[in-house]
Write a structure and sequence with these properties.
Elements lengths: L1 E7 L2 E6 L2 E6 L2 H13 L8 E5 L6
Parallel strand pairs: 1-4
Antiparallel strand pairs: 1-2, 2-3
Length: 58
């Protein structure tokens, strides 16, 4: 199972396989959500996590 946490407009979106699973107001909560999902996932299947941040302007 592959997860992605994306920062977008002051929200953190948890996605998997292109589907949105949840939205949170802070990064820590989003990462804890993914950690819980990974703990409950089938350990025989590959798993991964990527984090994308908003582009910052100077």
């Amino acid at each position: 199972m592959r997860f992605e946490v994306v920062e977008e407009a002051d929200e953190w979106i948890v996605r998997s396989e292109g589907c949105e699973l949840a939205r949170y107001g802070d990064q820590d909560t989003a990462l804890h959500d993914v950690a819980d999902r990974l703990r409950n996932a089938d350990s025989r299947a590959p798993a991964g996590l990527s984090v994308r941040y908003q582009t910052r302007t100077a």
